[in-house]
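Notes for week 9. Today we move from apo structures to complexes. The key idea is that a small molecule is not decoration. When we ask for a structure prediction with adenosine-5'-triphosphate present, the ligand SMILES becomes part of the input, just like the chain. The input block below holds both the sequence and the ligand string. Read it once before you look at the output, and try to guess where the molecule might sit.
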Amino acid sequence: MQAPLLSLVNFSCERDNRCLFEGLNARFNEGEIWHIEGPNGVGKTSLLRQITGISRSFGGELRWRGEPVSRARFELASDLLYIGHLPGIKASLSARENLAAYCPGVPDTVLDQALAGVGLFGFEDAPCYRLSAGQMRKVALARLSLSKQTLWVLDEPFTALDVKAVAALEQRFVGHAAAGGCVIMTTHQACQIDGLKTLRLGDYQPGRSA
Ligand SMILES: Nc1ncnc2c1ncn2[C@@H]1O[C@H](COP(=O)(O)OP(=O)(O)OP(=O)(O)O)[C@@H](O)[C@H]1O
């Protein structure tokens, strides 16, 4: 049987000597879209940072395609796209320059197509400090259409997006999964995605049995 893309084995997270969650076992496969759910402060962002390797402090085991991540760090990093809850956009740069910084070597015409695809046609040269919060988020999300990575890890990707943009992003996730990708995201918004899988992080708080 093929190993899952990513798996968590008896996984736990501690912050400031406080256990946020423990005993978490999960398998994330190609073709799946996952919603990491839970109340404020339960540890969703912390979990995403552990999955991406930004935080190496965790209990239990993280496996990439069946290999402990300690032996597959490069393989995970090169097949992963992570967008944090802050859009990671430099205000002084234009939308195109920001995108180019994440996608070196990609021609401007292709960058502009990606920006147009998220509704930013005509804003390619605008310095990002002139964009709205939702437009800044769209600059960050334009990376998705240029991504060749299998695993997308997205922290609150719907923040500040209008209804049409939320629906378009949901469709992008569906397309990515249909092409063999995997999406792991957090959101406090209700999602309209068929087959969406949910991991309720609150079920793994100390003293609760999942
Ligand atoms: N850099 C840090 N150092 C110490 N504690 C932190 C740090 N970042 C977060 N925490 C603590 O870890 C806990 C979980 O935070 P985290 O951001 O993972 O929660 P979350 O589930 O993503 O919350 P939200 O829904 O509000 O985004 C919180 O109690 C927070 O105070």
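The longest strand covers residues 18-28.
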